[in-house]
Automatic annotation (TrEMBL):
<comment type="pathway">
    <text>Carbohydrate biosynthesis; gluconeogenesis.</text>
</comment>
<dbReference type="InterPro" id="IPR035990">
    <property type="entry name" value="TIM_sf"/>
</dbReference>
<dbReference type="InterPro" id="IPR000652">
    <property type="entry name" value="Triosephosphate_isomerase"/>
</dbReference>
<dbReference type="Pfam" id="PF00121">
    <property type="entry name" value="TIM"/>
</dbReference>
<comment type="similarity">
    <text>Belongs to the triosephosphate isomerase family.</text>
</comment>
<comment type="subunit">
    <text>Homodimer.</text>
</comment>
<dbReference type="GO" id="GO:0006096">
    <property type="term" value="P:glycolytic process"/>
</dbReference>
<comment type="pathway">
    <text>Carbohydrate degradation; glycolysis; D-glyceraldehyde 3-phosphate from glycerone phosphate: step 1/1.</text>
</comment>
<dbReference type="GO" id="GO:0005829">
    <property type="term" value="C:cytosol"/>
</dbReference>
<dbReference type="GO" id="GO:0006094">
    <property type="term" value="P:gluconeogenesis"/>
</dbReference>
<dbReference type="GO" id="GO:0004807">
    <property type="term" value="F:triose-phosphate isomerase activity"/>
</dbReference>
<dbReference type="GO" id="GO:0019563">
    <property type="term" value="P:glycerol catabolic process"/>
</dbReference>
<protein>
    <recommendedName>
        <fullName>Triosephosphate isomerase</fullName>
        <ecNumber>5.3.1.1</ecNumber>
    </recommendedName>
</protein>
<keyword id="KW-0324">Glycolysis</keyword>
<keyword id="KW-0312">Gluconeogenesis</keyword>
<keyword id="KW-0963">Cytoplasm</keyword>
<dbReference type="InterPro" id="IPR013785">
    <property type="entry name" value="Aldolase_TIM"/>
</dbReference>
Length: 261
């Protein structure tokens, strides 16, 4: 692992507007004084609904927390009723955009071509894609690695240069009682890292794991991943801070290892 440990949260559509505002306030209070977040050792992002973006930007003002969007239009402007463009999102302070989540692919028919167009829109407007990739069915680590690398390449085809946050989320593990086995995650994450590392256009990219991620997992995975992508577990601010503490400890270990090297 190089650089900060990355921890992100997607709120999906679980919170109403006031509930989200209350959550922002409670989390902002905790992370504002969190030493690892304040120092940049842990990079933390929050992805609310579109209507919650501006309240989130205000709540986390003065902190290093990045605010994201759960989707982005393929085009920058035009007659696209109901869409929200990357230029407008960037204008109001959005720094990352969740793209290609399994629910978008399954419920709304998003193909790799559509995901690639959205990734391109984000990158050309200086928004970092949180690119969700993962196999739909259980398979061996080697087969899963091959499938996700192919998906990664398809989802970035034609996209301009820039770093991405590759969120490895095996579809069969999303919402499951337990995350994927650690050995499986490690095999796929390392393969994704190698694929991104071999592409000069993706310098600075990281690989994080999502899919029933919770406390203890980051410690178990160690430096095989660059962080975690959390879901409903993070609805409890205290539980979220526990993961940030875990990320902080991992970042400290990596820093000490780098000094020894």
């Amino acid at each position: 692992m190089s650089g900060p440990v990355t921890v992100g949260v997607s709120l999906k559509m679980y919170f109403g507007h006031q509930q989200a505002a209350d959550w922002f306030a409670r989390v902002a209070e905790r992370v504002r004084d969190h030493p690892a977040v304040a120092s940049g050792a842990v990079r933390f992002f929050v992805i609310p609904t579109y209507l919650q973006i501006l309240p989130a930007v205000r709540a986390f003002e003065g902190t290093p927390v990045l605010i994201g969007a759960q989707d982005v239009a393929t085009e920058d402007a035009g007659a696209f009723t109901g869409e929200v463009s990357a230029p407008e999102l960037a204008e109001v302070g959005v720094r990352v955009a969740e793209i290609g989540h399994a629910e978008r692919r399954r419920l709304f028919g998003e193909t790799d071509e559509i995901v690639a167009a959205k990734a391109a829109a984000a990158l050309r407007n200086d928004i970092t894609p949180v690119l969700c990739i993962g196999e739909t069915e259980r398979m061996s680590g080697a087969d899963a690695a091959a499938a996700t690398i192919a998906q990664l390449q398809g989802d970035l085809e034609g996209a301009p240069a820039g770093p991405v946050i590759a969120a490895y989320e095996p579809v069969w593990a999303i919402g499951a009682p337990q995350p994927a086995p650690a050995q499986h995650i490690v095999a796929v994450a390392r393969a994704l890292r190698a694929a991104l590392g071999s592409d000069p256009a993706r310098a600075g990219s990281v690989v994080i794991y999502g899919g029933s991620a919770g406390p203890g997992l980051l410690t178990e995975l160690g430096d095989a991943v660059d962080g975690l992508f959390l879901g409903r577990f993070a609805h409890d601010p205290d539980a979220l801070v526990a993961v940030l503490d875990e990320a902080s400890a991992l970042a400290d270990l990596e820093s000490r290892a780098g000094e020894r090297a």
